[in-house]
Amino acid sequence: MAQTIKIGIIGSGNIAGAHLKAYRLMDDVEIVGVADIIPGKADEFIARHELEGVKAFDDHNKLLELELDGVSICTPNVSHHSISVDSLRAGKHVLVEKPMAVTMEQAIEMVQTSKQTDKMLSIAFQPRYDPNMQMIRDIVRSGQLGNVYYVQTGGGRRRGMPKGTFISKQLAGAGALADIGCYSLDMVLNALGYPKPLTVSAMTSNHFGTNPHYHPQASAFEVEDFGMAMIRFEGDLVVNFKIGWAMHMDTLGPTLFLGTDAGLKVTPSGNGAWDGGITSVSLFHDILGHNTESAFPVKQHQINIFYEKIRDFVTAIQEGRPAPIPGSEIIRNQAIIDGILRSSELKREVDIFIPEL
Ligand SMILES: NC(=O)c1ccc[n+]([C@@H]2O[C@H](COP(=O)([O-])OP(=O)(O)OC[C@H]3O[C@@H](n4cnc5c(N)ncnc54)[C@H](O)[C@@H]3O)[C@@H](O)[C@H]2O)c1
């Protein structure tokens, strides 16, 4: 029987329920405490989920005084940084919800603290556990495509703008970029082995969020609902990326990888492949001078990718493995989002600088 892992949950809103649900399916996990900054909210969460013997706190630092192996950080984006740093310093492994942070300074301190404390900092990108996403990653990493020099990715919802903390600049940092753009970038960058971004030229807008016709909280809408960027990477790779919460269009097209030996076309089932919803994966290649298209079998699966994300975190703690989705890698994703926002504000191409950590 594997070692029982003691977990605390910080933030007891929407996504905390999904973390709890996954942990509760595991015989080798004990939920020890829940913290939420709103007094009484953690107690209410504990009561609602009938969590016997679980302690409630309105300050995460009090929770961190408990004997815990790890924490799930399920708070709004703005506090991912401070709570991760406090948790790592308290000797706990961290699974923090996406996006990693709000600023690059925050992301840097998170990675540094993880190194200093030798505790895991894992970012909660569950699409990584989708079998079709894993197939795409394996195809790209196999070298079948040759040297990949161009990628286009992203997508957009026809209408799909969240409310509340997600549209507050101060609490979320960014809008569609931080909410779904980070997944979309992770999909292609993980497949490519997270190349180093060098520069970005980008534009963002919020034509829908600030229009009361399209958003009930238009007067409070402070973030972008659309962003597009041309991102240059080491190795003469360019990524054409776009993401939107709303648009007058059904799709922004497939994700494409163009390589010197073959191209890969990933057609999303919905309006973007960031969540793993895929209808087809096709390889375009040359066989004996013939332009050939080969279809990979798209898997119809019942895998609960959210559960798999949490399970991998727990197993990594038990086995003393590195973070399954390390902050030291996702800092490149964060740096791109940071660069997109800077470039859009300055209306020109900007450098992306990530210090050696
Ligand atoms: N992985 C996914 O599929 C997924 C889906 C939705 C949201 N998220 C991410 O999860 C995070 C939370 O989103 P949500 O929808 O659950 O938001 P939410 O507003 O429903 O819940 C956040 C909770 O955190 C609490 N909180 C705020 N600051 C706190 C602090 N300093 N200490 C303790 N508690 C604090 C709030 O009171 C609230 O109860 C966001 O970063 C979001 O991007 C991830």
Automatic annotation (TrEMBL):
Domain GFO/IDH/MocA-like oxidoreductase residue range list: 134-260
Gfo/Idh/MocA-like oxidoreductase N-terminal domain mapped to chain residues: 5-124
Pfam family, any one: GFO_IDH_MocA_C3
Gene3D superfamilies (alphabetical): Dihydrodipicolinate Reductase, domain 2 (3.30.360.10), NAD(P)-binding Rossmann-like Domain (3.40.50.720)
InterPro entries to which the protein is assigned, alphabetical: Gfo/Idh/MocA-like_OxRdtase_N, Gfo/Idh/MocA_oxidrdct_glycsds, GFO_IDH_MocA-like_dom, NAD(P)-bd_dom_sf
Membrane spanning residue stretches: none
Organism: Paenibacillus baimaensis
UniProt keyword terms in alphabetical order: Oxidoreductase
Name used for this protein in its record: Gfo/Idh/MocA family oxidoreductase
